[in-house]
């Protein structure tokens, strides 16, 4: 192998294999940072050296592939540890917490509630700990069903101050059923909850203007145009899903 292209491609495939291998493990390793950094340094050094070696030996390529594999494994494990660590403490489950955050995805609106994801920027309740991303439901009726709640329009990219009650994501244990806990982890929703009906909410900013907010606002504009064009057509949901993902 005379060129860097071949060992680099082999190393990248090995890196992806390491990431995929982590998904098959029942538990996470204890020191993912070490497993990523040390093999990663070996991998980079070998790639740099290979640039100046006229003829790269098979052993060098294999060593680089092994290093890339463990680098990918450690990299994925480190990200998994980081995401799992960002969780709601059990002491703050089902307690009123006031937060400020940005709606970072398209809200889902139906007759029962408006559901949306919120990137938490600030926790106003003293000593409360809230994950960086949560999913909320804003119900249109009180839990005793004696009062109808007027919900304001929620748009992607808006910054809100809300009082919420949260819990850790938990799913059913039925074999073969939908794993909502894994789905929440995949989407980085580290807590789920609802907006309190005490009226202590306010829209802080019409548009937070972060780079990703422009993408979400564009997606929302496209969805509104699809809704206006297709109306009550039965295939509107399919068109929306195919267009916006």
Task: Kindly summarize this structure in a few lines.
The chain is of the alpha+beta class and 245 residues long. The chain is built from 6 helices and 7 strands.
Report on this model:
The protein is of the alpha+beta class and 245 residues long. A 5-stranded mixed beta barrel has the order 1-3-4-6-5. It starts with a helix and ends with a helix.
- The average pLDDT value, as a whole number, equals 83
Rounded radius of gyration (Å): 24 Å
| Share in helix | 40-55%
Strand order of the largest sheet: 1-3-4-6-5
Work out the number of β strands: 7
Order of secondary-structure elements: HHHEEEEEHEEHH
Strand content: 15-25%
User: What's the story with the biggest beta sheet?
Assistant: 5 strands, mixed, barrel
Terminal residue distance: 42 Å
Structural class: alpha+beta
- Determine the number of helices (DSSP H or I, runs of at least 4 residues): 6
Instruction: List low-pLDDT spans.
Output: none
- Tertiary shape: elongated
